Amino acid sequence: MRAARKTWKTYTLGAVAVAALLSSTACGPSGGTEDGAASQAPSAAPSATASATGSTPSEAPSPTGSAKPSATATAEPGGDSKDKAPACADPDVSIDTSYWPHDSGQHLLITATNDTDRACTLYFYPFIYFGQETENPLPPMESPAKAVATIGPKQKAYAGVKLFLGGEKTETYESFGIAYRDPSNNNDSAPIDVAFSKDVQFVTVGRKPSVTFWNLDRSEVERFVFKAR
């Protein structure tokens, strides 16, 4: 409007009077002129934005970035998160063995303790071998854990072994082999020989022994062990 008014000054007084009349009738709803509405617009826009977003334009939140996917990945048990602790290896854990009370030695509890100062993950189930067998570990009892067994320093994870059923032909062993899974490089560690604890000393193994998945919850392992047939 201001640029137009500069142009109108080159016309006659009658034209100026007509322009003034048109300008006086072009009022806003509140009775102000268009000049008043235009001059208020720049200051009104930021206040409207602040009211809608709760912040000034410079403080407006940025579009969704990596924070949301990262939180989702870490919230999914067993998910493929880059932040997951590396796989446990032989030097990382110590292994202990025990029987359940009143069990007659038919089932073995394996306890893995993290001996390092960092977390590591026990994947799937332990590869257990008896005697000279090093190619075919015990099969799982179809007992997947509810979450991947990541253990911090001095923390423990558990697995159970069904050794034999009543009336089976059995063999006796004073040690066993154990190996660990590492999905990051699709590799399995070589089994190492582990002696049984003083409370166990030896085990009697039947024709079809099997093992549970690693689990942070000992009671969950016990549930699978004693329902397995």
Automatic annotation (TrEMBL):
Residues 25-90 are annotated as: Disordered. Residues 36-67 have a biased composition (Low complexity). Keywords: Signal. Residues 88-193 form the DUF4232 domain. It comes from the Bacteria. Pfam families: DUF4232 (PF14016). InterPro entries: DUF4232. Residues 1-28 form the signal peptide. This is DUF4232 domain-containing protein.
